[in-house]
């Protein structure tokens, strides 16, 4: 007879052997730049810098829209540099994170934010033909011809 409160079933097995620790399949050092992920991060830094420069060079006729575009460009640029630095300096081997999943989530989130910024920048660019009324006698275009071309480049 079993003592009171005891069970005839054996205890469950330890789950640790069934879940191996995550492996880092992305290389460290300069070898990261030879992978698809490293190339995408490098391109994000390059194009983020270009968008940042182009949007900053306009007169920002709609601060709310272009402010978000600048926020996305600067934040994604900074986080891309941090993410690339983690692999360049070998910190990925010291931090126990599933880097494959983190890489996927990072690129997915960056894509969503850049796509939203693209839509807002394109909306700002599409207002080129609408006049802005300062008073009843004069009208000025929202974007000049130069700013219109810069906004198209930033949208692309």
TrEMBL record:
UniProt keyword list: Membrane, Transmembrane, Transmembrane helix
PROSITE patterns: MARVEL (PS51225)
Annotated compartments: Membrane
GO MF assignments: structural constituent of myelin sheath
Domain MARVEL per the UniProt entry, residue ranges: 32-156
Transmembrane annotation, as ranges: 36-56, 68-92, 104-123
GO CC, alphabetical: membrane
Membrane topology recorded in Swiss-Prot or TrEMBL: Multi-pass membrane protein
Domain of life: Eukaryota
One Pfam match: MARVEL
GO biological process: myelination
Stated name of the protein: MAL2 protein
Species assigned in the record: Sinosuthora webbiana
Lineage, uppermost ranks: Eukaryota, Metazoa, Chordata, Craniata, Vertebrata
């Amino acid at each position: 007879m079993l003592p009171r409160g005891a069970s005839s079933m054996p205890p469950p097995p330890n789950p640790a052997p069934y879940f191996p620790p995550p492996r880092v399949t992305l290389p460290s050092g300069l070898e990261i730049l030879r992978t698809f992920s490293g190339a995408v991060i490098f391109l994000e830094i390059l194009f983020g810098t270009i968008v940042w420069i182009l949007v900053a060079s306009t007169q920002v006729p709609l601060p709310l829209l272009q402010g978000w575009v600048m926020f996305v460009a600067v934040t994604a640029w900074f986080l891309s540099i941090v993410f690339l630095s983690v692999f360049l300096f070998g910190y990925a081997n010291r931090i126990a994170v599933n880097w494959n999943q983190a890489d996927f989530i990072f690129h997915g989130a960056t894509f969503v934010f850049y796509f939203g910024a693209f839509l807002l920048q394109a909306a700002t660019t599409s207002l080129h033909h609408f006049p802005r009324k300062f008073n009843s006698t004069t009208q000025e275009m929202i974007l000049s011809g130069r700013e219109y071309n810069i906004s198209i480049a930033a949208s692309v």
